[in-house]
Design a protein that fits this description.
The structure is a single chain. By secondary structure, the protein is mainly α. The protein is built from 13 helices and no strands. The longest helix is centred in the N-terminal third of the chain and has 33 residues. The chain is globular and about 65 Å long.
Length: 304
């Protein structure tokens, strides 16, 4: 592993740790505010957090690699475009996730969200990317795990679990979009992309909150700690670490590291919220985690 791969891996591991612990704050925040109001508040805090970070990185970059006015305008335009696209995708993902978390446990939500590790390569078929045959086996194992984790004895699926599954699809597209912009478009500033991404989520969440909910200042203040934790760390810091990590990390390793958020989510849910899982649900978690790990093992290169 070279220096850049190590740096990217550490960025993504840190992001996974923060995201996993943030499931607890997201769950706790639902006691005071509704889902879209929570997303509105956390994304706005994330946006504010990233303004000075973006300015600092831009100033440092200009010292080492000065840009002409034309180059800077092109950088800003492409970064704005990329940020809006990724922000719209992230808005969909976080909306489904936050509503889902209000109807299920933090640990289950974390493991179901981790299914993006399987969905990302499968969606690659749409872009004519060959998918190793082992991925289809992983998808089957993950679906079996999802069944044991989420489907009750009466063969019903929790609405919260289903929403978290939709969230996993949305995150898959968002991850693929970030990978495209930070690796294929040299005119995109990763940190500015992250800042614009959260401004976009804020704007979308304002609309959703005021149409479907009744936001109150008192509720937001009561949920201040969960909002600040998710806004500063999960939104402002972790998603920026994701973008920087994907820029440097091997694309075959990156999703595996990010998927560890599911393990951290279950761990923190148990430690802080006192959540418990049945043996059936634990078996489901192990199946999902096994599929996640198996999907990243070196294969023979054969495709199906």
């Amino acid at each position: 592993m070279n220096k850049n791969d190590l740096k990217g891996s550490l960025f993504l591991l840190s992001a996974a740790l923060i995201w996993g612990s943030a499931f607890v704050s997201q769950s706790a925040g639902m006691k005071y505010v509704e889902p879209y109001t929570f997303n509105l508040s956390r994304s706005f805090v994330g946006f504010l957090t990233l303004i000075p970070v973006t300015l600092f990185f831009r100033k440092s970059s200009c010292k080492t690699n000065p840009l002409t006015p034309g180059e800077e305008r092109a950088l800003n335009r492409r970064s704005l475009f990329a940020g809006v696209i990724c922000g719209l995708l992230l808005s969909a993902a976080t909306s489904f996730q936050q509503v889902g978390i209000s109807m299920t446990t933090a640990g289950k939500a974390g493991f179901i969200t981790a299914l993006y590790i399987i969905i990302v390569p499968v969606l690659g078929i749409v872009f004519k990317r060959k998918v190793p045959r082992i991925i289809w086996l992983c998808a089957a194992i993950a679906l079996a795990g999802f069944y044991f984790l989420s489907v009750g004895s009466d063969l019903t699926l929790s609405r919260g679990d289903l929403l978290c599954l939709v969230c996993a699809f949305c995150f898959s597209v968002q991850i693929m979009s970030i990978d495209h912009f930070v690796k294929n478009d040299k005119k995109v500033d990763p940190v500015m992309l992250s800042m614009v991404q959260f401004l976009t989520v804020t704007i979308v969440s304002v609309f959703l909150a005021f149409v479907f909910e009744k936001p109150s200042l008192s509720g937001i203040l009561s949920a201040a700690f969960p909002i600040l934790y998710c806004g500063v760390l999960s939104s402002g810091v972790a998603y920026t670490l994701q973008i920087l990590g994907q820029k440097h990390c091997n694309p075959a390793v990156a999703p595996l590291i990010m998927s560890l958020e599911s393990v951290f989510a279950a761990l923190f849910g148990w430690m802080i919220l006192g959540e418990s899982m049945s043996l059936k649900e634990i078996f489901g978690c192990l199946l999902v985690l096994s599929a996640v790990i198996l999907s990243q093992l070196p294969s023979s290169g054969r495709t199906g």
